[in-house]
């Protein structure tokens, strides 16, 4: 009776004694059936030594199970089958070698049967010839057994790898879930700034996601109001809401920067395309104002001048801050380079420590730069609102939102693009 | 304190700074960009620097005390104050009034 071989060590009637995993029964029940089909094919074509059918059998089984919706898992496994061949086998077609334990055992049985038949008939014929046949057959049997053994060991190792990876994955998922819940819980009590600060990057990412959701909702409300030609008062209250919501994110960024300034500066909490245009941890005010110049016509002479001046001022402020950052980088580089040199003397060690301490101090000013940059962004929005009418401010905010969300959409498209 | 007050009215724009401070560098660059020739006093290079810093701390009531900007002899404030004034379009008129700009 043929022993069933299966993937992932489910049901194996050989002396290996692998345990059955009930959760995979249904999936592998199907695989078992397909392997049975495969081996029938193998058995009938064994004598003629047709090899390709081995591969046909495997792919046939794969496609059979495919149609039953088990596709990704089993296709992967069937491709694994193809790689388990033992290339040291004497008649080494890789296809034949991908046959399962079952086939090798069957082969051995048939060889043995064949050998018995030969031995039976050879009593009356040349003894030495029989001996050679025996040796050949014996050697072949041994090789087959060896190959089968190795194949089983490989399968076992692979299965164990799969199992441990799966376990790890579940653990990670649980950790992530827990961390998320923790982050959400803490940001719920947002008044206590200390609590939020403690969790740094992850908590901020969660808060930002929530902030963005609320922001989008508010902007939709604003858009509806603009399209419906809402009253001045209604529009103003919505615009004020959007602006104070902007203040909220600057506040959150400030708190998060105390915990993890590098995370904010890195822009990892933004989408890739936004990150490309990142300036000191956020958007560049002067760029947004440039964008608005076209969107906001008609503007009065005074308004136009106001917006232009605002753009120029923010540009100058941005440049000054950029220069400051560069000076910081330079200073940091010099400090670190200064601690290089011939090692060994105790003086140099003290030097090193001193310079590291200095470098640490310089890094501390990063938070200050980030704060100034956010301050700049906030002020720009407020000044813009001051210069424009309510309706114009509304359209400006819509334009800014649309531009930034296109940038975000671009990121998604880019990440999902088909690659060669 | 006296020294601070004396120095701060010596020129239209006076900046008290520390040579290693990069935020001070930022403010200096901003005024340079605006075409202002400011008087810069590096506290770490002044023998009375520590006293001056104490005096400034009292006036500003914040840390860090530098950069501290005086325009027309009056204390304006630090980086954020200067930035706010500039974005509000108020810095340039202030500079003009103090005679730091002629356009």
Automatic annotation (TrEMBL), chain B:
Report which superkingdom the organism of origin falls in.
Eukaryota
Q: Where is it chiefly localized?
A: cytoplasm
Q: GO terms for CC?
A: cytoplasm
- Keywords in alphabetical order, please: Cytoplasm, Electron transport, Redox-active center, Transport
Point out the signal peptide segment: none
Question: Where in this chain does the record put each Glutaredoxin domain?
Answer: 13-76
Q: What is this protein called in UniProt?
A: Glutaredoxin domain-containing protein
Q: What does this protein do?
A: Has a glutathione-disulfide oxidoreductase activity in the presence of NADPH and glutathione reductase. Reduces low molecular weight disulfides and proteins.
Matching entries from PROSITE patterns are given as:
GLUTAREDOXIN_2
**One Pfam short name:** Glutaredoxin
The family classification in the record reads: Belongs to the glutaredoxin family. CC-type subfamily.
> Could you tell me which InterPro entries the record lists for this protein?
GlrX-like_pln_2, Glutaredoxin
Subcellular locations according to the entry: Cytoplasm
